[in-house]
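Changelog-adjacent note: as of this version, every example in the card shows the full chain rather than a window. The one below runs 140 residues end to end.
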Amino acid sequence: MNYLISLIIGAITSVMILLNGTLSNAYGNYASSIIIHVAGLISILLVLFISKSKFRLQAGLPIYLYGAGFIGVATVLFTNLSFENLGVSLTQALGLLGQTTISLFLDHFGLSGANSSGFKVKKLIGLFFIAGGILVMTIY
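Full-length structure tokens:
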């Protein structure tokens, strides 16, 4: 089931890049980022309301964990900039290469409380295939 969910995430991300990039072309990068994040806030508030979930901050969590919000804003800004010049497929492909590279590092060292899965040569081979595919996409 997790494999299917991950596949769906990839498809949704491609649609998100298209919609966010088009919005950025219409309103500019900063204004569109505000619109995108306000729409996201309204969406999650609706989910919380419909599911009758409670929201409260937990004491004692490291402050750096809240940095994910800044990373989300940077992701939208940089993706919108890339979309204008590279399109959806190359923006997505290069983003996945960056995600895969960093995730291999995070998994290997078990950073931020994640389980360490160790280095495996097959993961590096997969990374080279991804990079090779992007090279083909860029050249042709």
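Structural remarks: The chain has a mean pLDDT of 90.
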